[in-house]
Write a structure and sequence with these properties.
The chain is an alpha+beta fold. It has 2 domains: 1-34; 42-162, Sandwich (Immunoglobulin-like). It is built from 1 helix and 12 strands, in the order αββββββββββββ. The strands form 3 sheets. Strands 5, 6, 9, 10, 11 and 12 form a 6-stranded antiparallel beta sheet that branches. A 3-stranded antiparallel beta sheet has the order 1-4-7, with no helix packed on it. The protein has a 3-stranded antiparallel beta sheet with strand order 2-3-8, with no helix packed on it. It is elongated. The chain starts with a helix and ends with a strand. 18% of the residues are buried. The protein binds calcium ion (2 copies). Residues 126, 128, 130, 132, 164 line the site of one calcium ion.
C-alpha cells in the first residue's frame, strides 16, 4: 500500500511536524523555568526529605522498647524547612491504621549541611497481640527570603514489624 514515492512526499511534512513539536516543548518549558521556587512543583524544591524505616533504639528505664522514626533531610540551597511527621501503626483491613502522634521539626540548612538526620525516639506502643507494625509519613515546606512553598504531599516510610 505504501509506495516509495508516498514516503518521499510525506517525509518533509513529518520533519516539519517534528520541528514544531520540538519548538512546542521548548516553549512549554519556559513557564517552568520562570516560576519562582515557592510556586512549586515538587521538582523545583531545593530540599529532599525522606522518612527512613523505623529502627529499634534500645529500652527506656522501664524496659519498654524504643523506636527511632528518623527523617533524612538534604538541601541543595539555603532553605528553611518545616516538616510535619505523623507516626502510625499499621493494621490489616478492615481495621484502620492507628495514629500514634504528630511531631513538627524546623531546620535551616544549606548545601554545605550535607545529609542531616533528625531523630525522633518514641516508646513502642503495645496496641495488639503480637508485633507492632510501625511507620511514619512526612510532608514539608521550604522557605527562602520570607517566601514559603506549599506543603508537599505525604511521603511514607517503610514499615517495621517489632515485638513488644
Ligand atoms: Ca498492627
Ligand atoms: Ca503487641
Amino acid at each position: 500500500m505504501f509506495k516509495a514515492s508516498d514516503n518521499k512526499k510525506s517525509s518533509p511534512l513529518r520533519r516539519k511536524l517534528a520541528l514544531l513539536s520540538v519548538i512546542g516543548l521548548g516553549m512549554a518549558s519556559v513557564p517552568v523555568a520562570l516560576a519562582a521556587p515557592a510556586q512549586a512543583s515538587v521538582t523545583s524544591y531545593a530540599c529532599s526529605v525522606t522518612p527512613l524505616k523505623p529502627i529499634f533504639a534500645g529500652f527506656n528505664s522501664s524496659g519498654v522498647k524504643l523506636v527511632d522514626y528518623r527523617i533524612q533531610v538534604r538541601c541543595y540551597s539555603d532553605r528553611y524547612v518545616n516538616i510535619t511527621q505523623q507516626r502510625w501503626e499499621e493494621d490489616d483491613w478492615p481495621n484502620g491504621d492507628d495514629h500514634l502522634g504528630t511531631s513538627y521539626f524546623s531546620r535551616h540548612l544549606n548545601n554545605a549541611s550535607g545529609y542531616v538526620t533528625i531523630s525522633n525516639i518514641r516508646t513502642l506502643v503495645d496496641g495488639e497481640i503480637g508485633n507492632e507494625e510501625v511507620y511514619h509519613q512526612i510532608q514539608w515546606q521550604e522557605g527562602t527570603g520570607g517566601v514559603w512553598s506549599p506543603y508537599t504531599g505525604w511521603r511514607y516510610s517503610a514499615s517495621t514489624s517489632m515485638s513488644n
